[in-house]
Amino acid sequence: MRSYIGSNQAVSGTDFVELALGTPVELWLGVDGESELERAARLDAARDILAENPHLPDDVIRIAATAIEEHAQELFNVVPLTRPVRRSRSVRKGAVA
Question: φ, ψ for residue 5 (rounded to 5)?
């Protein structure tokens, strides 16, 4: 099954989120090792985007809920793991000749 956001195909989970948000995921989550200046600039850009698009959080939640609903069977297809069978060793009692 293929997933599309607009006319773009989402191949991975990251693609799906980026296409749904219209921005790179790193803008919202940050990256490892970013400096305080980079973090401040990233958060400032995120605030600008939210100011221009006040309904973005609600839209993202709606899109995520729809995706979960459409793919619930695959997402929640849980197979119980079997427990390994314990084999007891037979203990021999008595004297060894």
Answer: -115, 110
Record the pTM.
0.54
Instruction: Please state, rounded to an integer, the average pLDDT across all residues of the chain.
Output: 81
Position 50: which residue type?
L
Report the amino acid identity of residue 38: E
Residue 25: CB atoms within 10 A of its CB come to: 15
Q: 23, 15 in Cβ contact below 8 A?
A: no
- Could you tell me which residues are beta bridge partners of residue 5? 8
Separation of alpha carbons 19 and 5, rounded Å: 6
Strand-pair partners of 3:
10
Mean pLDDT of 6-23: 77
pLDDT tens per residue, range 63-75 = 788 888 888 888 7
Q: Which of 9, 45, 90, 35 is nearest to 1 (CA)?
A: 9
